[in-house]
Design a protein that fits this description.
Layout: H1 26-47, H2 54-83, H3 89-109, H4 111-118, H5 121-130, H6 132-143, H7 151-159, H8 161-164, H9 166-178, E1 184-186, E2 189-191, H10 195-200, H11 208-224, H12 226-247, H13 252-258, H14 264-293, H15 317-328, H16 333-344, E3 348-349, E4 361-363, E5 371-373, H17 380-402, H18 412-415, H19 417-431, H20 437-474, H21 481-496, H22 522-542, H23 544-556, H24 562-568, H25 577-606
Helix pairs in contact: 1-2, 1-3, 2-3, 2-5, 3-7, 5-6, 9-12, 12-13, 14-20, 14-25, 15-16, 15-19, 17-19, 17-23, 19-20, 19-22, 20-21, 20-22, 20-25, 22-23, 22-25
């Protein structure tokens, strides 16, 4: 039974994260913000128009780094506070105030990159030779030189950054504040509904009548806001289009791929190969679910159901510790120490409450510990999600130890590899510790329904849809709700064929993801999982040497391209082979599920 969510004020403190590790009091936050603003002005007065020699370059970057390090905890505190309760007026206003302050600071600081790039290249090369610390930063700066605008134009664009971010804020406000879901009724009984309860419960509810009724009620409310949400998204797209055109990129896609340090072939391959070669395997999985549940037809609303609902353990946060510890033990003592601290020091917000952001994420501010958001429902899926987010935490925990703030963050193409790696370690650990057929089937089904479905289906189909959207925008067009609904439905129908009925409301799935406001992010989930699947095989086959390689990859942070980081892990992502291997592996897991189900059903029939 899914319960009505409480307000944030009624949530037990032990289920929440401890933001006092960032700022002990609101007053200290305000003092830090005020000091930051003052220091930015002083920095501007000291360095603007005075960067001439290689020594000046190093000096200004030291000062710039100090300013950046001040900004991180302030922004993190503001953002995390609003993410757990978007109905709180005070946190909303604080976040807006921070956005305005950050935009003003960005405008004031824009001279740094403009003046550095205006210097003769030999001056920058000399600075790179003198400073290991800032070599990578300057190298990346030179890489973007051809796309930089006149210094005054850069200053204006920076000043508008808060306004440019407004569509994402509006999307979240519409979704988490204005959108209030009505209860739904099945057989005379009334059930509560919200974003969190749908995605964290009703979507995978074994009772078909309740699940489909919840989906219908959920879709009905989404439909009420489809035009506002589409207009919001189109505004974001037009900002991206104008920016990419102004900077001289051939397309929005090229603009967004530039910072990921990958080319179009790697981007398109990830989408095209999965759409073509994974679809038959997933259709086989859908048919297995339909057969086991005795469904008259398989609908979009049925795709998240557990294969065996009678074998789904309920797990508390406390009980999750052992699963996480045992699964990640191979990563070593330092990594496990981080995991234990995450529990002991309240790095994670486990609570379910009204106004809290959906899904899960890990924020890893430089200079302090990571923060993880999750809405704990007590299912085994939550343990996989937590392992995933701890993968992000472990990545930046290691990178921050070995890299400065400019060098610590890798391309988003690689960002999901460490997180999904932890999911693979979790699955491998569980499989190696039992020969019970039902347990084995449950673990493999969890890998398929959680790890691979989430990353190789849900997010990949988002990417395929997103690519179609950008094609329209790049041709000078715009989108509305009708256009987005048609595009989303076409992608779902292409992938699932006649195996799944794309029920009314499925086309509105585009409204549920914030990823569209984060550039070409959706496809990177499957890219990261491709890398981690190959890496997890190495760990199984080689043990410690493979783990040592992986830790070195994490410690490298953003000092290498995705291809270089993957090569360190023994994976060549410049070819299609790792992706083909991963798709074949998913197919083999689904074949195992079919075989195990037949075996279990035969034994049940005998008894």
């Amino acid at each position: 039974m899914v319960k009505q969510l409480p307000p944030r004020s009624e949530v037990p403190v032990q289920e929440t994260w401890n933001l006092k590790d960032l700022f002990e009091t609101e007053q200290k936050y305000e003092e830090a913000l005020k000091k930051f603003q003052s220091d930015v002005t002083a920095f501007e007065e000291k360095f603007e128009g005075r960067i001439q020699t290689s020594e000046d370059v190093i000096d200004v970057l030291k000062g710039y780094e100090g300013i950046y390090l001040q900004l991180i905890p302030i922004g993190t505190y503001s953002n995390l506070a609003v993410s757990v309760d978007q109905t709180d007026d005070d946190t909303q206003l604080r976040d807006s105030r921070f956005g305005a302050a950050a935009a003003k600071a960005g405008s004031q600081l824009s001279f740094v990159t403009s003046e550095l790039l205006a210097l003769p290249e030999d001056v920058l090369q000399s600075a790179m030779e003198q400073s290991d610390e800032y070599r990578h930063y300057l190298k990346e700066l030179l890489r973007e030189k051809e796309y930089r605008l006149h210094p005054e134009a850069e200053k204006v664009l920076a000043a508008y950054s808060a306004a440019f971010d407004a569509p994402y804020g509006l999307y979240n406000t519409t979704k988490m504040v204005d959108m209030q879901f009505e209860d739904f009724t099945v057989d005379g009984e009334v059930y509560p509904l919200s974003y969190v309860t749908f995605e964290g419960g009703w979507e995978s509810e074994p009772d078909t009548r309740k699940r489909r009724a919840a989906f219908e009620a959920f879709s009905k409310k989404l439909r009420d806001y489809q035009h506002t949400t589409a207009k919001t998204y189109d505004a974001h797209l037009q900002i991206e289009k104008i920016t990419s055109d102004l900077r001289g990129y051939e397309s929005i896609t090229d603009y967004l791929l530039f910072n990921q340090e990958v080319d179009r072939s790697m981007y398109n391959r990830q989408i095209d190969l999965i759409m073509e070669e994974l679809a038959p395997h997933m259709r086989k999985y859908a048919k297995l679910l339909q057969k086991e549940y005795g469904l008259d037809k398989m609908t979009f609303a049925d795709l998240k159901i557990p294969l065996d609902p009678t074998y789904e353990p309920t797990i508390t946060v406390e009980e999750s510790k052992k699963y996480i510890h045992d699964s990640l033990a191979i990563m070593g003592e330092d990594y496990l120490d981080m995991v234990e601290r995450s529990y002991d020091e309240r790095w994670t917000d486990f609570a379910q409450n009204k106004g809290k952001s959906t899904g899960a994420f890990c924020s890893s501010p430089y200079g302090t510990h990571p923060y993880i958001l999750i809405s704990w429902t007590g299912s085994m899926e939550d343990v996989f999600v937590l392992a995933h987010e701890l993968g992000h935490a472990g990545h930046f925990y290691n990178a921050h130890k070995h890299q400065n703030v400019f060098n610590s963050r890798p391309s988003t193409y690689f960002i999901e590899a460490p997180s999904t790696m932890n999911e693979m370690l979790m699955a491998n650990h569980l499989l190696s510790n039992s020969e019970d057929l039902k347990f084995k089937r449950w673990v493999i089904a969890s890998i398929i329904s959680r790890t691979y479905y989430h990353n190789f289906v849900t997010h990949l189909l988002e990417a395929a849809y997103q690519r179609k959207v950008y094609e329209i925008i790049d041709e000078g067009g715009s989108v509305n709700a009708s256009t987005l609904n048609k595009l989303k439905r076409s992608v779902l129908e292409e992938f699932w064929g006649d195996t799944v009925d794309i029920s009314e409301g499925a086309e509105l799935t585009w409204m549920r993801q914030p990823h569209y406001y984060m550039g070409l992010y959706p496809y990177t989930y499957s890219a990261g999982l491709t890398i981690s699947t190959e890496m997890a095989k190495r760990v199984l086959d080689e043990g410690q040497p493979a783990v040592d390689d992986w830790l070195k990859v994490l410690q490298a942070g953003g000092t290498k391209t995705p291809a270089e980081l993957s090569k360190m892990a023994g994976v060549d992502i410049t070819t299609e082979q790792p992706l083909k291997n991963t798709i074949a592996y998913i197919g083999s897991l689904i074949d195992q599920l079919v075989e195990l189900t037949e075996e279990i059903n035969a034994e049940t029939a005998k008894s």
